[in-house]
Each structure stands twice: as structure tokens, then as C-alpha cells.
Amino acid sequence: MFKKMATFVNEVDINYAIESDPEVDIKLPDSIDTSDNDSIDTSDKEDFPEVEDELEVDVSIFGEIEGLADVTLVVEDRRIPVVKAVLSLASPVFRAMFQSDFKEKNQEEIRLDGKKLDIFVTFLRCIYPDLEEEVTVENVYDIIYLANEYQVSRLLRSSEKVLLVEMEKFEDIEKENCCLEVYHHLAIADTCQLERLKAFCVSIASDACQADRDAAVEVHPVSSDIQRCIEKRVIRKQEIYLADYDALLGSLNHDSICDILKQKLQIVEKAPASFGTPIQNVQTHGGFTFTQVQQKQNKSSVLRGSPVSVSNAKGTTREADVQDLWKMHLRNLRWVYKHTPTDDKLKRQAIYWIRQAQQWFRWNIACAEEFSLLPEIAKHDIKGRYIMKY
């Protein structure tokens, strides 16, 4: 009787009733058994919604329904009945597995370790002729590696087309994360031997700066052959650009180039004598203003020439401005050695400003790489060989 009644009242009410009557000594069970309760109407499903199970991946469409399946593939402990003939026609790897002297030839079940069920089922749907699921940007990054592993050439071609279209979004190397995406696709092309995608990505990568390429290859490593292809293309592009640049300058006569370089060598930005170092002397030289500063070195004071300092309206300059100034001096030097290699006066002026800049303690941090890439003859002239010519 109590059992029947308990199904119609809640446990709180029962506990309250027992506690209010001390003569009643009833021990409630941990849980009330309502298995024989026939009086509760549960026909109204909307009042008692149930959580639906996730739809399972349908693996019966690869030959089981038609009764044609003659082998079972096991992926993540899930059995997938398939037709040997269909897989053999699509993939030379499956054909060798089923027809050659491999251990899988006579097995009724073949376990495929390291595969994901949903991805493998999508792969099968793409290669079954009666299904032929389309390759899209949503599934291509999953199935392309299976297409490569099982050498499904038709699926590889379709995947490459999708990836080429996707890569068109990253033709502009200035786009955010462009270089990372390019190297991601380069890694795919390299692994799967997709030559068209590889060539397209190499072309885009060769427009990126070295720092971006170095960062991208850390995330998406590619083979040394790919890296050499990119480097060769970078060099070749630079050769072409320089030839165009020379052709443009070729339209100017020698005197015009000299006038331009003379003007460049005299255009300098504001640069402080030193960051936190007192100015000792201010001088002018050939129309240029520079400072000499007193710096402590081994407990003795020495005068050292500083880079050019030209006061502006505010009289202040950031450290970045100074580094830009040094790089401008290097650029001017390169122009002189490239376009007026016989003009000793221009060389002397360009070298003078490099030597001034080299006395700064931050020079090696900011400009070491650019200086190392100067022509060797220019570096020798700056350092002085047998005699100090300039």
C-alpha cells in the first residue's frame, strides 16, 4: 500500500510526515521502486522530452544493404562492410591488398589503424561510383591525405582543384596570415605531390619577406627541395627587378645620376648625439652638421664622432629614427657603388657617414645584416685595406 502511495507524493512530503509522528518508524529505501506503477500516464511525450542519441555514421551503404559486401574494414572498432571490386577499381593500394600476396588477401576483416571513422566514411563516399560525394573546402583537408595514401588519382585531382581555388584568397602576400596559409598548403602539396598547387604556392611564397617565411616554415615544415625552389625564385625575381631598375636609371645620363646622389647624400634626418650621452662639440663639415660626444671607456674620456644631427622644430628624435638614418646611409652607399663606381668624391662622402654611424653602440644590432650584404669592395673601402683611400 505504501509503495503504491509513494508514487503519487514526493519524498519531501513523506519525510515531513514521518518526522511529525515520532511513533512511526519507517525506513525509506534509497530509491523508490516505481517499476510496477501502472497509474502514471506517460503517453504525452512532449511533457517528458528525452535526449536523442546522436545519429550514428551510416556504414551500410557500401554494399551491405545490397548484399554485395565481401570484406569488412574495421575503423575505430566499427565494422564497415565494403565491396572489394569497387575499392580495387578506385585504388591500386586496395587492389594490391586484395589480389596480391598480402596477408589481408584472404581475411574477412581488415583492421585499419590510425584512421578516423567519420573521415574514412567520407573518403569512401567520395570514391564509390553510386555516391560520388563532392570534394569541398570543408572536407578536402581531411580526405586528401587518405586519397594520397590509397593513391586515388581522381580524388587527388579533385582535391587539388579545390585547394587551388582556396589559395586564390591568399594571392596578396600582404594579407594577414597569408604566409602561414601558403606554407600550410605547400606542406600538403609536398606530401601529396600536387605539382600545380606546389608551383602556385612557391610563387606566392617568393614574394614574402624572409622573416615571414622563416616563421611560417616553423609552423608548417616543408622539404629542403621546396625551400630551394622558393629561394631560387626569390633570387630570380630580384634579378629581374634590378634589371628593370637599371633600365629606368639608364634613361638618365651620368651627370643626372651624380646630381641625384649628391642630393641624397645631403638629405639626413634628425639624429641625437647619443641616448643619454652629453654633447661635447658641434661642428659643420661640407654643409653637414654633426656632433662629437664624450663617452666613458675604460675609465677614460674620449671624443668620438657621432652620426649627423640636424635639429628639427621639436628638437627630439626617437631611436627608430636614428636607425632609419643609418639604413639611409647604407642605401646611399649601395647606390654610389652601383651607379657611380668611379666617382671617388661621392664614395668618400658616403663612406664618411657610414664610419660615423658605426661608432654607435647600437649599430651592430640595427645594421649588422645589411652591412654584411654590402659588396665586399665597399666593406674593404670602409674598413681600409692596405691604405686608407677614403
Automatic annotation (TrEMBL):
BTB domain: from which residue to which, for each copy?
A: 69-128
Q: Which Gene3D superfamilies match?
A: Potassium Channel Kv1.1, Chain A (3.30.710.10)
For the region Disordered, what residue ranges are annotated? 26-47
Domain of life of the source: Eukaryota
* Coiled-coil ranges (or none): none
Q: Per UniProt, what is one Pfam family of this protein? A: BTB
Q: Which PROSITE patterns match?
A: BTB
Q: What name does this protein carry?
A: BAT36-like protein
Origin species, per record, is Mya arenaria
